[in-house]
């Protein structure tokens, strides 16, 4: 099964405990998310926590990767070309940081992030409808945390 963008169903909001996840900037609990890109078969989801957009942003774009009951923070910067309104926008996501997931090889994590971001597109727009292409700059120079 592939990733799909969707509103998080109430059943998943009750199943997954987001209350212990802190915002990467304020270190306060995050607001309960309302949408994600999810692969239900693998029980893996990518959730935007906000942050900066564009390569010169003060903050990276913060994401939370939910992986079969575990959470890991992931940070990206982004660069866009084209125009979202005319459906010719392209985005390049640059990986800046990801946490570790015990038992998950880094390449599997990176490949899964690419799948999820391809679905997510840009600012949650479904890339097949609003974003012409999603590219990646995963050059191996990113940080890895606990």
Q: Could you explain how this protein is built, in words?
A:
With 146 residues, this protein is mainly beta. It has one domain (4-145). Helix content is 14%, strand content 39%. The chain contains 2 helices and 8 strands, in the order E-H-E-E-E-E-E-H-E-E. Strand 6, helix 2 and strand 7 form a beta-alpha-beta unit.
- Proportion in β-strands: 35-45%
**Total count of helical runs of at least 4 residues:** 2
Largest sheet: 8 strands, mixed
How far is it from the N-terminal to the C-terminal residue, by CA? 29 Å
Global geometry: globular
Tell me how many strands there are: 8
| SS-derived structural category | mainly beta
Uncertain runs are none
Mean pLDDT across all residues, rounded? 87
Radius of gyration: 15 Å
Helix content: 10-25%
* SSE sequence, one letter per element: EHEEEEEHEE
Structural domain tally: 1
